[in-house]
């Protein structure tokens, strides 16, 4: 295998940052009781799946960033939809 380019390393670090932020948000919302248990479990499972994929295929920069950012967006939108109003 060839040596990774600086761009690949940078994009992998950015994707890891998005995954880390999403992890903190999932755990924080669950600990604060803002989200139902089922949403936290589903979000955690999705986070694990994305993390496993990123660990195996981190050199595919477009896919890595797309998955990491997509996970964050899906979690934010889903959380805003399921939080009970009032």
Describe the structure.
The chain has helices at residues 6-32, 37-56, 61-82. The chain is an all-alpha fold and 86 residues long. The chain has a domain at 14-68. α1 (6-32) packs antiparallel against α2 and α2 (37-56) runs antiparallel to α3 (61-82). The longest helix has 27 residues, at 6-32. The protein is elongated and about 50 Å long. It starts with 5 loop residues before the first helix and ends with a helix.
Summarize the entry for a quick read.
The protein has 86 residues and is mainly alpha-helical. It has helices spanning 6-32, 37-56, 61-82. The protein has a domain at 14-68.
Task: Break the fold down into its secondary structure elements and pairings.
Elements: H1 6-32, H2 37-56, H3 61-82
Helix pairs in contact: 1-2, 1-3, 2-3
Question: In sequence order, what are the helices and strands, one letter per element?
Answer: HHH
The low-confidence parts are none
Radius of gyration, taken over Cα atoms and rounded to an integer in Å: 15 Å
Number of strands: 0
Task: Pick out its properties.
86 residues; mainly alpha; 3 helices
